[in-house]
């Protein structure tokens, strides 16, 4: 870790003379009237570690190992969850005692199981929605294909007017009705 200087609080007592760096290294001291390096006179003489102020107070807690439950315990918990998604504290304590588990273990297991249940039901709903969309698209496609195969009912007004009759029978999406150029007219 890097170290930063920390300012010292001013002392009411006279401070001893601060020695220049060269005195600490064994060099001859500078005369008293010589300039003393500003770093030696800095009020930031004490250093401390960088980091969050609460970081160095207590050691970090060790993560608890994952709890393993027996098959019998899981089976009983699943049966109970299938019947009841939430337990009252008395029910939870009774179940914990019957399964030789702690109250906190049962509570945590139910919380985790509800989270898994919500995710699963959301995925199932999404799959059902997608299946319904595919079915609707298929039905629409079938209806469209049937409408193309069936001839249009003749409108009595169009039967007497050749222009309206031609417009009624025009099907631009059909392959056999290609648009031809009118360059020769």
From TrEMBL:
SMART domains from the entry? HOX
Record's keyword annotation contains Transcription regulation: no
Which compartments is it annotated to reside in? Nucleus
Residues annotated to bind DNA:
62-121
Q: Name one GO cellular component term.
A: nucleus
Region (Disordered) spans which residues?
48-69
Q: Which PROSITE patterns match?
A: HOMEOBOX_1, HOMEOBOX_2
**BP-aspect Gene Ontology terms:** animal organ development
Q: Which SUPFAM superfamilies match?
A: Homeodomain-like (SSF46689)
Q: Which domain of life is it from?
A: Eukaryota
List keywords of the entry alphabetically: Developmental protein, DNA-binding, Homeobox, Nucleus
Q: Which residues form the Homeobox domain?
A: 60-120
Q: What's the short name of a Pfam family annotated to this entry?
A: Homeodomain
* MF terms (GO), sorted A to Z: DNA-binding transcription factor activity, RNA polymerase II-specific; RNA polymerase II cis-regulatory region sequence-specific DNA binding
What does the UniProt function comment say about this protein? Seems to be involved in the development of cranial sensory innervation from peripheral ganglia.
The protein's name in its UniProt record = TLX3 protein
Classification from the root reads:
Eukaryota, Metazoa, Chordata, Craniata, Vertebrata
Gene responsible for this protein: Tlx3_0
